[in-house]
Amino acid sequence: xxxxxxxxxxxxxxxxxxxxxxxxxxxxxxxxxxxxxxxxxxxxxxxxxxxxxxxxxxxxxxxxxxxxxxxxxxxxxxxxxxxxxxxxxxxxxxxxxxxxxxxxxxxxxxxxxxxxxxxxxxxxxxxxxxxxxxxxxxxxxxxxxxxxxxxxxxxxxxxx
Length: 160
What we know:
Layout (H helix, E strand, L loop, with lengths): L1 H19 L3 H17 L7 H28 L1 H6 L1 H27 L4 H28 L18
């Protein structure tokens, strides 16, 4: 219930702030780290308060990641080269593939140890993946593969 409450109450406000921000990739990374921490915190055995905090952090993570990811993807030069519809279609297919393969991988991980350790392990992996994304974004940004957000609004198609 806390998950839905946070998304409904804070999602629109956070989305507007993200739209105005030029740091969309960093927001995705921060959201990933928050989500990883939200899962890993269950390892501390804080009882019901820990479960509540974990759900709240996961909700905040999702509320940050979803709008920032879509806007960030549209800023990539390769997306502008192949077309937004094609790139977003590929991103959507990758999401669906992850939704299909993710539960299978989680089942394998969860069969190996105690539940709390498994959830914490997934949280740590979530955080590590976020840090790897940060490194990738920094490398791509230095190589000029991101559009300059000051000169391009990803929501407006300038191709005629």
